[in-house]
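W.,

You were right to be curious about this one. When I first looked at the sequence I had no strong expectations either way, so I just let the prediction run and decided to look at it fresh. Below is the sequence, 227 residues in total, followed by the output.
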Amino acid sequence: MAREPPRRRGARTRIAPSGPAPAVPPGERIIDALMELAAERDFGTIGLGDIAERAGMTLANLRDFYSGKGAMLADFARRIDQAALEKGAAEGDSARDRLFDMMMRRFDALVPYRAAVKRIASSACRDPMLARKLHRLGRRSQVWMLEAAGIHKSGIAQGIAVEGALLVHADAMRAFLDDGPDLSRTMAALDRGLTRGEKAMEWVDRGCAFLGEIGSRVRSWRGRAAA
């Protein structure tokens, strides 16, 4: 029987601050402008001048903050990671459930940008450079999600864990892009992916332990031979 995904903590009620809203920092305005434009058109057709105009600044001002769209995407990914991490410790009794919680926090944070993310993903299918950039950013994000879930690996196992988490996230992303407000399809896809990933990592851990034991025996044999 499939394990039911852990329940997520409900959002806390926030009291709106009185007085005028604080001004949005220029860097945040730039990211917001990029994502607004990405929701409207193909990513490759968005020019830096378009972003500057939407952000209400000159191209020179834009250059003060970013070297290009890739750097803006990196800051957008960081924004989503921060939104997930700022909610505090991951919930769940097991590492698997804690990783589920952290990944769902990222999807919750992505909801307002779903249209933009969908068009960027579509553009990446036709643009290998953009796809490569998104893969690097995805790996970086999953390093933080694994860490927040208390999943610590080293060496080959670390690389496999990061790539595995990225594959699970990518599979759930496909469900997310066409999901309803409750994100039920996203949670189901994530639950299935983490179940498969958990089993795969058990084999990886056993393999790494076996190789480590063989390496220890070889070093011991070489030490005795040298003596």
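Here's what jumped out at me. Residues 168 and 196 are 9 Å apart (CA to CA). And, maybe more interesting for your project: The chain has a mean pLDDT of 83.

Coffee later to discuss?

I.
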